[in-house]
Amino acid sequence: MLPAGAAGERWRGDDLRALFGRSTAVFALLTGPAHVLETANPAFLRAVGIDGGRTGRPIGELMPELAAQGFIDLMDTVYRTGHPHTAGDARVVLGADGAAREAFFDFTYDPRRDEAGNVVGVTVLGVETTQVKRSQRLAAEQRALLEQIVRDQPLDQVLEGMARTIEELSPGVIVSVLLADPDGRHLRHGVAPSLPDFYNRGIDGIAVGEGVGSCGTAAHRREPVVVTDIRTDPRWRDFLHLAEAAGLAACWSTPILTADGELLGTFAMYHRAPRAPQEEDLALSAVFARTAALAVERHRAERARAAAEAKERAARQDLAFILEASTVLARDLDVDETLQRLARLAVPALAPLCTVDVLQAGRVRRVAAAGPTRAQEDLLASRAPAGDADGAVARVLASGTTEIGRRAPAGPGPWEELGVTGYLCVPLTDRGRILGTLTLLATAGRPADGRTVALAEELARRAAASARNARQYAQRVRLARDLQAGLLLPELPSLPGATLAAFYEPAGEGLEIGGDFYDVFELGDDRWAFMVGDVCGRGALAATTTGLVRHTARAAARLLNDPVAVARAVNAALLERSPHQGTGFVTLVYGELARTGGRLTADFVRAGHTPPLRHRADGTTEILDVPGMLLGVTPDPVLRPGRVVLRPGDSLVTVTDGITEARSAAGVLFDEQGPAAALAACEPRPTTARAALDAVTRALGAFTEGSEANDDDRAALVITAA
């Protein structure tokens, strides 16, 4: 049992002093209604910041900050009522001004009684939980920050949340985070929610170096820098006016570094009174510097990933643009149309305005202009550069190198009307030859960048190649047509007692010389010869063979009065060809016409060719299927003569297999019955050579509508007796 009365009270006091003398728990005995500090253990004195020699004075005088926080009132209540008071995690701010600190305690106020049971004081017994509380809050806040980092929250939000958290955990602290430039030579404003704007602007961009304030020096040294008194520290000489204006007196800066020591920024803690950091302050700085490093590294990684994805998307888009452009440029094999397509492709993908100029016969000709409106295009098209103009176009044509201007072109032009602020002039070069220029005109806010230059140069290169292909194609078409025209009659002759009509259509686009031909020539003595043939193959060899057949037939016909003999002469000439002159066979209908007694007699031979047709004046049609073998295959082909008598209005119609083997959209052959049916339906009767031919070609066109382009030449010859 405990002793009662004053002796018991003394025992308890002595016992408590002995018990808590070396304890980390806080203990104090307060006496009287003024709560005079009678005694306290060292832990109490350290916790509240009181010198051990200051006992014997009211606690309210020793710690005046307690009154405003309600703790003196709690002691008064315990003293007055005799009832104890217990509190957990009670927050108390100890000290004042720059020395103030936040602390947390679990404590009990017990009434002290004398032997009569009267309350004579208050016993204070407690445990400081500040570190536990701070650790718990720190852990919770750090978890929240890490979750924000993992969720890829914006960096400024994460850093601002961190700064505010620290300012809440450490009252009186002002936090600032500066971020390093990519080159690591300067620090830029990151976040500082409690610093004035003028101060943030003043230190934005400070150099990383020795003696450049706390942050510049810490970034340079890659280690914490503590300045306890800004006013007297030489490292703050250049920034003292800013610090004084902002009311800052101390600054502790910790560098924010990656695991391998790369500088990311600095984490600074300011105070408004000179102050040296305690151990927990430095620990707090280190923890949040590491957290900031995670946030900045994550942000940089995310930005790098986004930049890489953007670059990849741009590359894919550029590739798609170039591939689509290549397809569009090759769509029409016409030089001017190709270059006009080039201008339309460039706007607006590469620039708001574009012109294309070509060099022809030593002069510059504008072939295309593109813009947002027709009026702008017309304005550009109307101001073509002069051939001797000392402008961008002339310089690029002369040098063959791209030219970029950050202003409007120097030469005359509608630059002011169109708001032109820059240009990019690219040569159209193919195989070392400069064909012209592609000029992109920039307007306000849209200068040419490296990507635009690269795309423009690649587009120009492909356009130049497409223009060359178009030019070569046009030259080959002209050559093929000229050669084909030389193998066909320039015009049909006039035959006494007969009218003629002929038709020829080359396969595809007429790029190659066809193998189909027809001919009509005079033999003398009122006799005429005709032929329709088809040479196997196409191109130069087919043209050589066609010429051989026609010239051999013309020469032999004047010596031989026999179509079969003429065909054999042609066969012999074909067999005597050297291999480089061709080896293909020939189908042929050759005949000779003579007029007797108002009728036209045709003696003919059919050598493997589509049988000719006789279309009578009454509308009936007969296929003249006379047997005969191909020419150019065997030395002694089987050939049989044929004869047909044409009365007035009768027609002899001969076509090539390009007509009879034409297919409909469903794949059905026109066949030999196609021309026969077309002639049978021909009106009026009797018909003319032209009307008969038109009937066949119209029926052929209707039959093949919707089918693929013809892949074989087509020829026909109609001879109508008058």
UniProtKB/TrEMBL annotation:
Keyword tags: Hydrolase
InterPro entries listed in its UniProt record: Bact_Sigma-Reg (IPR052016), GAF (IPR003018), GAF-like_dom_sf (IPR029016), PAS-like_dom_sf (IPR035965), PAS_4 (IPR013656), PPM-type-like_dom_sf (IPR036457), PPM-type_phosphatase-like_dom (IPR001932)
Source superkingdom: Bacteria
UniProt KW Hydrolase keyword: yes
Chain ranges of the PPM-type phosphatase domain: 498-721
Any single Pfam family the record assigns to this protein: GAF_2
Record-annotated GAF domain positions: 154-306, 334-477
Protein known as: Uncharacterized protein
Native source species: Streptomyces thermolineatus
Keyword Hydrolase: yes
